[in-house]
Design a protein that fits this description.
The complex is a heterodimer. By secondary structure, chain A is an all-alpha fold. Chain A has four helices and no strands. Classes of the chains: A mainly alpha, B mainly alpha.
Chain lengths: ~150, ~100
Amino acid sequence: MKGSFAFFIHWLWAIVFGVLAISGFAMIGAKYGWIVNYSLAAADYVHRVSASFFVILTVLAIGNEVWRAWKNEVKALPWMIIGPSGYQLFNFITALILILTGMLIWVCSDFNRAQIAFSLYVHEFIAYVVLVGVIWHIYQKCHALNSRRQKPKV
Amino acid sequence: MLHQPWFKVFIWFLAAFFFFLVAAVVISVLSPGPSESQIHQFMIGSMDAMDRSMMGAAMHLRHDVFLTSVMVLTASLTVPLIALGLFLGLLIWFRRSLCSEKS
């Protein structure tokens, strides 16, 4: 059951991150707007709604890891999105930075311009890093793309 | 499930999506400009977002006293929650090290 939870959350997280990435990159600047045909209102809506799902999934994953740590479970969950080492640790750190800076951008848009500028810079930079990380992750796990059907044994 | 044909198609789709996204970002970064029409379209899109999206809704929040107080309360709770999280993390780490010493 735990394996299926990690599997489910992994792919749901991938979909949500994909939606966040395409809507977020389109809002960076005038050179990027063509990605969504300059429908920035729609991109803003989609980005904020999917960010909420992203936060919920991340909190669920963190809760699961804390529960496992509390129970002293040392068995690794390879499908889990966050973990103590490797790409899971990279995911954990970058997701927290993205969530924190995203919340600052959302909340401080009215009363702290310096904070919002700094958060936007960090948010964008980490998004590039994460995108490269995703490509690296796909490269590492490219055996999952193997679609050759095995002949049934006679 | 991983070996189901429909799931393979899904994985291929998602992988291709991210590669196309990287290509779009590279094209955007390396393309000349932005041109005047691109800036114009982006400005129109931004204004539209301020009027019709959640950005506009968020900008109107400042006139709502209750919601503003909730936001201030939430912001003030952030630091204690991070401190509590760090404390719980240390507690778990200490508990695990004790358990590993026993075994």
